[in-house]
Model the fold of this input.
Amino acid sequence: MLLYIIRHGETSWNVMRKIQGATDIPLNENGIRLAKITGEKLADVPFDAAISSPLQRAYKTAQLVLGHREITIETDERIQEISFGDLEGEQLLQVDPSHPFFSFFADAYHYVPARNGESIYDICDRTHRFYEDLIHREDLREKTVLIATHGCAVRALLQPLYGDTDDFWQGGVCPNCGVNIVEVKDGKAALLEKDKIYYEDQ
Done:
């Protein structure tokens, strides 16, 4: 099994640095452009299946990457972005730097979520369950699968494959339309590409 795990394209809330989380914000024009370029660069990849977060920014990214391929996109809530609860919609630059939210990036494992929000352990748990179910699917065992998800969800999903799991962010958030390629063979997984972007010169 070969997995192409992609973060969604850019949204207006990304640009405004609003706390987005589980809020269902669409791609902006640049996000659509980045996803299209990425799809063009991956045109020769023989995708057999696609799974997306149900949030529209991820689903649309999957559609644009697949292009004219006639593949039905499954959705799975377990790879939806972390929920920030009552903080969603706040602008990061307007949040007091002493606010507990900033530990989300500085010390993710000790981040205390706002009311109605999730912790890093919550998203790691659900993405791990998704991953375990995925790699044991007989119908996908020898297939190439596109997975469209989100910045924090990418890091949570790939935690077991990183050498240093103490650093949740692995140096930073996966960029918009960044692609991680994972090969699963004989029950063992290897990260072949990390945060690869295809639009730098575009």
